[in-house]
Write a structure and sequence with these properties.
disordered N terminus; 199 residues; Rossmann fold; 7 helices
Length: 199
């Protein structure tokens, strides 16, 4: 199976199980080192690759107007089931272009998404994300580190590469965080977070 298709089929077939796994870890625990960078509510937020909606729902609960974009229909359905109402607009869409999504946003979040983009798509995606930000807007990207699994397309991307591509898209680096060990207990996985700002 072509590896791009493998990514979406993996998430489609695993949507319910992944809902239990992802929702077992709180938004605050995952993104604690970045919470001080969140804009004041109400603000407009885009969650790209929203998965089962944990982050989008948590941000909406904090008073933000949230658009949540997810390419896998099964995950969108699971997100809507787990988080009914709550001020989140669920949309179909995927990087690098995210067609139909219009900024400006005060905050754009990509949690465990960038690792799926092949090298040729990353500069295009970064320019698109920068173009969705309001002046002074914040882009937060979390990066899965470690050897990629063999059953779907994934890359081990260093935060320095992300920062370099961000600079080319007129984003300045605010912070790189070594999040340390995986919160789901996978010994071979570590996480980095990269915080960027437009202007």
């Amino acid at each position: 199976m072509e590896r791009t298709a493998g990514v979406q089929s993996y998430y489609a077939e695993s949507a319910e199980r992944l809902g239990r796994v992802y929702e077992s870890v709180a938004f605050e625990d995952v993104h604690g080192a970045l919470l001080d960078l969140l804009p004041k509510a109400p603000a407009r937020v885009l969650d790209v690759g929203a998965g089962t909606g944990r982050d989008a729902a948590a941000l909406a609960a904090r008073g933000y107007a949230v658009d949540a974009v997810e390419p896998v229909a099964e995950l969108r359905r699971e997100a809507a089931r787990l988080h009914p109402g709550g001020g989140v607009v669920w949309r179909a869409g995927a990087l690098p272009e995210i067609p139909g999504v219009q900024g400006p946003y005060d905050l754009v979040l990509l949690s465990a998404v960038w690792m799926h983009l092949p090298p040729r798509e990353r500069p295009v995606a970064m320019r698109r994300l920068a173009g969705l930000l309001a002046p002074g807007g914040i882009l937060l990207i979390t990066l899965r580190r470690g050897a990629p699994p063999v059953d779907r397309r994934m890359y081990d991307i260093p935060p320095e590469e992300v920062a370099g591509q961000a600079a080319e898209a007129r984003l300045r680096l605010l912070r790189i965080v070594d999040e340390g060990e995986d919160r789901l207990g996978r010994e071979e996985v570590r996480w980095n977070s990269v915080a960027l700002q437009l202007g």
